[in-house]
Amino acid sequence: MNTIHLEKPAQDHRKEAMNSKSAFIKVEHLTKIFYPSKPRSLLSRGSSRQQGFRAVNDVSFEVNRGEIFVVMGLSGSGKSTIVRMLNRLIDSTEGSISIDGKSVGDLDPSSLRAFRNETINMVFQHFGLFPHQSLLQNVAFGLKVRGVDRLTREAKATEALTLVGLGDRIHAMPDQLSGGMRQRVGLARALATDAEILLMDEPFSALDPLIRQDMQQLLIQLQRNFKKTIVFVTHDLDEAMYLGDQIMVMKEGKQIQRGTALDLLETPADPYIEKFVAEVNRSKVLSAGMLVEPINGADHEDGCSTGSKPLPAAENGDSRVEHVTATTIIADLLPLFASGCGRLHISDNQGLVIGQLTAEKVFAALSPKESVNEY
Amino acid sequence: MNINVGGLFESIIDLLLANFGWLFDGVAWLTSHVVGSVEFALVVLHPLVIIVLLTTVAAYMTRSIGISLFAAVAFLLILYMGLWLETMASLAIVLVSVAIALLIGIPLGIWAALSSSVSTIMRPVLDLMQAMPVFVYLIPAVFFFGIGTVPGIAATIVFSIPPAVRLTELGIRQMDSELLEAAEAFGAKKNLILRDVQLPLAFPSIMVGVNQVIMLALSMVVVAGMVGAGGLGGVVVQGVAQLDTARGFEGGVAVVILAVYLDRVTGGASSLPGLLRKSKRLKSERVSAKNSTTDVNADATPAFH
């Protein structure tokens, strides 16, 4: 009764459901060429002026509503340029961007301002907080721009600051905060306007590893409640895989591969991505949902019950079966498999079993691609 | 071969004089009245009142006991050297020329910061204004405005505008580009960005500009004495002309006192917004803390009693 047959892993299933609507953000053949504004010297006039620098080269992608879309690449790969073209802080040279069916490139200055204020907000790598304003004023900035009266916008800003855990420090100045706290303010500022889309340009790159993890968890938590559409830029593949529903890997302005974390791990498109993937801690980026398999009717008796450690979604329904949700990362499940467990049942947030996870599948997924091919 | 640059300049001046003489007369009349009334205001009150006022301003702007004390003692010294009227006359000239220089310089600086082509055009003009020996300005100034205070002020303004323009432009341009992006990314209009972000952040730099303008204006006070601008400049010029060491030195000391006073006060002003923000923040934190403690008290926690 608790076996639901699925043809594909949960991740793909979700993607499919979203694809049935048309994409929320649709980018086609986006190209940005930076021309030097004027020849710096008589010598450099000829070549570089005509050629320009191709920061982004013919990139196309689609982002669905409520999805975290990660743009991954090393510095100079054009990833920051891409997000800035989405809200037109940088104008594209060629290609089109449409958001919710409207072409971003065609907006006149005043509708562009309204679009930035109401639909698409941004979080910056170095936080971009105004040092002369209190946290409250910083977070209320977007609403002030919108023309919201002071009391309303301060109430809203206080609410947003409370969401990110800074409700008791609304009168502090940015320079009194640590890096992680400042980025919480940056996040609160983007949340306060209720914009549907968040652009996050390496928001956690300037933070210590531990703080970075906290912030990633905070983002996931907030995302669970708000279901924003997030375009997230990072150079850290672990971060990309932890957060991303879809990941686009960039190199020198070109798109190398686009897919889920599992796609990148299983079928890296070229040696560049293979090299990246080799260094990833697979147990931390793979979640149960990515490896879930349908349960054969005859097998479902074999659910493993040895694990005594209570897991977040452990349900009272079937005491013999350990329930694990699709978002549990594999690292948390390894102790169960180590203690002799052969298969686990995976349930969704409501506790309904959606499939099973076998030890073989997990270990196969954990071993790097090359070594699998050798056997 | 000779190119007669000087002759060209002279004929431009002549042309201006012939056609716009009435305009210069009007400006001269207006300026002398403005300076006259400022000077009158400084002189009509009892010197001790003015000294208390100047000390209070120093105390407010710098929050430093030492500088306030210095102001009180130094202006008393000027009073007892018998140079009070001359010092107030110079102060009036400095205040008026600085006000006019800033009214012209700061908007030009903002304009130059927002437009690169304006900046490119402005730079050589500013170089010219700043590097030209100051006496050179006095010659046409006297032609335009006659002998007295006004040509002194005119030359002072031309000489002291450049730092106001330069430091305003620098203050706005050196702003972290991410802050500008952040403001733009939230859809702010250009003038809101200017008012709420760029100018407040450029304020320290602008205040350095104000400080420089004042210092340059003060250095012009003595030079302007040569065209009969009066004040301390007159005292010094007189001392030089009569080889009166004592008189000349006294005039010089009074100029130094004025210079140090104005420098410290305007220097203190650049950190003033930070101080004000801090005290405001502490106040609002106190208020919210008070509110939360009254809430706690309402719940009545006997453990603390």
Structure description:
The complex is a heterodimer of chains A (375) and B (305). Chain A is built from 16 helices and 13 strands. Chain A has helices at residues 10-19, 46-51, 79-86, 109-118, 135-146, 150-163, 179-192, 209-226, 237-243, 261-266, 271-278, 282-285, 288-291, 330-338, 359-366, 369-374; strands at 25-34, 53-63, 68-72, 94-99, 102-103, 120-123, 197-201, 229-234, 246-251, 254-259, 323-325, 343-347, 353-358. With 375 residues, chain A is an alpha/beta fold. Chain A folds into two domains: 24-38 and 48-281, P-loop containing nucleotide triphosphate hydrolases (Rossmann fold, 3-Layer(aba) Sandwich), CATH 3.40.50; 288-374, CBS domain Like (Alpha-Beta Complex), CATH 3.90.1280. Chain A is globular and about 60 Å long. Helix content of chain A is 38%, strand content 20%. Chain B has 305 residues and is mainly α. Chain B has a single domain (32-271), classed as Orthogonal Bundle (MetI-like fold), CATH 1.10.3720. Chain B has helices at 5-44, 47-62, 65-81, 84-114, 116-131, 134-145, 149-173, 177-185, 190-225, 231-241, 245-269, 272-299. The longest helix of chain B has 40 residues, at 5-44. Residues 295-305 of chain B have low confidence and may be disordered. At the A-B interface, helix 4 and helix 5 of A face helix 8, helix 9 and helix 12 of B.
Series of secondary-structure elements of chain B, N-terminal to C-terminal: HHHHHHHHHHHH
Shape of chain B: flat
**CATH class category label of chain B:** Mainly Alpha
How helix-rich are the residues of chain B, as a percent range?
A: over 70%
Question: What is the straight-line distance between the termini of chain A?
Answer: 38 Å
User: Would you tell me the structural class of the helices and strands of chain A?
Assistant: alpha/beta
Number of strands of chain B: 0
Spell out the CATH superfamily of the largest domain in chain A.
P-loop containing nucleotide triphosphate hydrolases
CATH topology of chain B: MetI-like fold
CATH architecture of chain B: Orthogonal Bundle
| Mean pLDDT over the full residue set of chain A | 79
Radius of gyration of chain A: 23 Å
Number of individual domains of chain A: 2
List the total number of helices of chain A.
Answer: 16
The chain pair forming the largest interface, with residue counts per chain, is: A-B, 34 and 23 residues
